[in-house]
Each structure stands twice: as C-alpha cells, then as structure tokens.
Amino acid sequence: MNIYDMKIAVVGGDIRYIHLAQLLSEKGLECAVYGFDTELSDSFGAVRCGSADDAVLNADCLILPMPCTRDGQHVSAPLCEEKIDLLCLAEKAQCPIFAGMIPSQVKAYCDKHKKKIFDYSQNESLALLNAIPTAEGALQAAMSNTDEMLHGKKALITGYGRIGKVLAQKLYGIGVNVTVCARKKQSLSLAYAMNYDTVSMDHLEDSIGKYDIIFNTVPERIMTPNVLENVRKDALLIELASFPGGYDASYASKLGLKAISALALPGKYAPVSAARMLEECITDMLREYYDEQ
Q1: Are strands 117-119 and 61-63 parallel, antiparallel or unpaired?
Q2: If you compute the radius of gyration of the chain from its CA atoms, what whole number of angstroms results?
Q3: SS3 (DSSP) at 87
Q4: How far apart are CA 97 and CA 85, in angstroms?
Q5: Parallel, antiparallel or unpaired: strands 47-48 and 236-239
Q6: Which whole-number Å values give the CA distances from 23 to 20, 31, 66, 77, in the listed order?
Q7: Per-residue pLDDT tens for 140-150?
Q8: Is 9 helix (H, G, I), strand (E, B) or coil?
Q9: What sections of 115-248 are H helices per DSSP?
Q10: 3-state per-residue secondary structure call for 28-74
Q11: Which of 41, 99, 265, 279 would disulfide-bridge 23, Cβ 3.0–4.6 Å?
C-alpha cells in the first residue's frame, strides 16, 4: 500500500501532534484529528472530527501520543477536556496503532484482540533526535529559573544516556562546569573522555551538595530523602525523566528546595521540530509495516 493513499487518524497529544497532522496533510495524506479543543488555523489541512470514533472510522493508521496515556486508562490529551478511553478507542480502530510508551496492559489487550500496535518511543533514531530539543529545553528551564548566568556554574547531570550526553555537551559549550553521575563504569569513562568531571552513583549522597544546578535524566528514584537533604538550599533541581522521576518532588518542596518539572520538552520547547521528527519516524515505520504485508 502506498502510504500517501492512506487515511491517518491523529488522536490526542500536545501541540506537536497538531503540527504532525499538518505535516501529514501537506504531504497529501488524508488526515483526521480529534482531541484538540484549541483553535486551529484556517490553513490547517487536516479534517477536525467531532469524536474520536469519527476520526478512526475507515482509518488505515491511528497515531496516539507519547506517552499514549498518563493514567493507564485515557489517551493523553492535554488540549482536550473530554476523557478519551484508550481501550475503547483501540477496539474501534480497525488498523495498525502507533503510540509512544505503551503500558503493558494496553499491549496485552491488543495482543489478545489481534490488533497491531507499535511503540515508536522504542525507535532509536527518534529517541536520539528527541534528545536535542529536550537538552535545549532543559537549558531554557535553567536560564528561566535563575537570576544569574549559567557560565561558571557547577551542574550535575544524573544519568548519561541519550539526553545526558547531549545536555552535557551543550552545558559545557556555554562554560558550565559539568559533572556526570552514573552507575556504569563505561558511562563514567566516556564522560571523563569528554572532559567532564564524574561521580559514581554510589557517592551521590556525599557529593550532591557541591552543585548549583542538578538535572535528573534517570526515571528511577535515585535521589532518596537522604540525598535530597544534602542538596544546597539555593540549588536548582530540574526533573527531565518520566514517571516516577529521580526524586520525590513533594519532599523536595518540604525541604524548601526549588524543584522544576520539565517533562515532554520536545512538544513544549520545539513542537514544530518535534513534529518533523515524529512524521519521519512514523512514515518510515508505516512503509516498513506495509512492505512486509
């Protein structure tokens, strides 16, 4: 099947999914959208539907957001007041479903009912590209929440995966003193080779009091209450990791720490660029799927 002869349904998501629908429409695909109460421009090429069921009717592909759900039950649709039941929508869709960060119960449901579902958050190219706007958005969050320049500040990055690597490079480039904290010796060695200071995760509690800004990229509670208690009161904590995050934000607040949640940055900081990345990833996955049929 030629993907440009398809009807694509885009349901839910943040503003980047509006731009995604526009990009798909500009490439000649029939695109139906639902889950956006926000005003759409007169030049918007996709068809705005009255319900999620209307959007998926006769669709050849359903695109859901990343993450596809935040509560395990409803489609993540921050721009829509209506609660869209995720499993009901999956039942209605008679086509492959592309979604990000799919929970196990949704995968199990689709397997049971023989529905094709693909997790595009597992696409390595997309993950690498998304690290760029995430890192840039993290810089913006840091600059917006301090009244001093970042140059010369001491920053700690917990985790040295895709986001940690790009963020460290960008911070170092503007004169920030960067320290990378990681578990794996290989990650610490790589960070050292890039001229960053390093600290083992085992020594986080003892060393965390040295830093002006702390960026967490690890989706695991690595900053225990004891660790948080050693953070300087004038330091800035920036959470970049998905649930459950690297620390208990409510406890950090009780300690009087300034803790910023900076999640889903590609969609907030650079929605047009993020949409282009999604469009390329999903159309590639669609081509691969239909080529195999």
Answers
A1: unpaired
A2: 21
A3: helix
A4: 15
A5: unpaired
A6: 5, 10, 18, 19
A7: 999 999 999 99
A8: strand
A9: 124-144, 162-173, 185-193, 204-207, 225-228
A10: CCEEEEECCCCCCCCCCCCEECCCHHHHHCCCCEEECCCCCECCCCE
A11: 279
Question: Residue 293 — very low, low, confident or very high, per pLDDT cuts 50/70/90?
Answer: low
CATH topology assigned to domain 3-122+271-291: Rossmann fold (3.40.50)
Which pTM was predicted? 0.89
- Contacts of residue 52, Cβ cutoff 8 Å, sequence gap at least 6: 11, 34, 35, 75, 84, 89, 92
Sign of the dihedral through C-alpha 83, 87, 89, 95: positive
- Given the candidates 2.60.40.420, 3.40.50.720, 3.40.50.12780, 3.10.20.30, the CATH classification of the domain at 131-262 is 3.40.50.720
Q: What is the largest CA-CA distance in the chain?
A: 59
Give me the chain's average pLDDT, please: 94
Task: Tell me the one-letter amino acid at 105.
Answer: Q
